[in-house]
Amino acid sequence: MRSNICMVILLMSFVWWSAPLQEASAVRMVAAGGHFMLGYSVGLRAVGTVLAVGDNEYGQCNVSGWSSIVQVATGNYHTVGLKSDGTVVAVGGNDHGQCNVSKWSDIVQVAAGGYHTVGLKSNGTAVAAGGNYEGQCDVSEWSDIVQVAAGNYYTVGVRSDGTVVAVGGNRHGQCDVFEWSDIVQIAAGDFHTVGLKKNGTVVAVGWNSASQCNVSKLSGIAQVAAGGDNTVGVKSDGTVVALGDNDYGQCDVSGWKGILQVAVGGNNTIGLKSDGTIVAAGDNHYGQCNVSGWLLPPSYSDADGDGVDDTLDMCPKTPLQTAVYYNGCPGNLAYMDSDGDGVQDQLDMCPGTPPKTPVYSDGCPQVYR
Taking 90 as the threshold, does the pLDDT of residue 218 lie above it? Predict the structure, then answer.
């Protein structure tokens, strides 16, 4: 599976990165999928529509007709979208039933593995569809979960107390996460799992063929993403670090700045900048890195200041400083936004911004620039 989502969940991304983006624009979240050479990239616009480039052999990029999407996830050959009403859509390869999600409801986050899809429900339980050859879909007994991630043949979940659970294939030790604590976000690669701790340090277990698990020296990290043989982290200052396989230049991210979120695909890395533009590094054989033109100016409005566009907000009168899920409804306190500017505390470069102050996606007042 190549990126989960990188979606910074907990850090992202349930938390909306998007305090109003500069020019109210554009892509508010990125995801990258694909397996080995077959890469593709997906971008979620602030108003709930979706873009995709790259390999489309199985129709995984056929997302142009989607609307009201609040989160996206990518697997090897399938793309999953969470709608603002808690239902789920999926396109792409469905040979294992990984796209059979049309009957799901009350979902607040999705994750896509190699050949399976996982959904987190608002009550902290989880559902799954797709291949279950190694028990990766055996999540029905989970409870008190606040984030899920999916790799190849395994699934991991973060509990509200910061501990982690896992099911599925463990031949490389990728599920050996039961002693972890203080975890605020997880990411799953093909066969390794990465956890971000509350203090900004990182832990990792699993396949370490390219040193992708050598994360013990990382600090000041605000989001982690995991690809096949790569681990990428966004630092609190907006710079990026990467470990692991670099055969295609997918780890050449040291010069990136102003990054809010990263996603890792088959052999590429993409980053969302605070101005809503996208950068990419790595293999571009299928055009999966052709994301530089994704900045578009859709309208954007957020009356209750929770960082969720009014057209997608299912709880439009949320009080200021309330942590919310992707759909704008009150969520777990792990996603706290203390100053109510729509940017989660761990990502906020200007904490304490006065209420209703227009800010960029890093939480700093627009008047500063």
Answer: yes
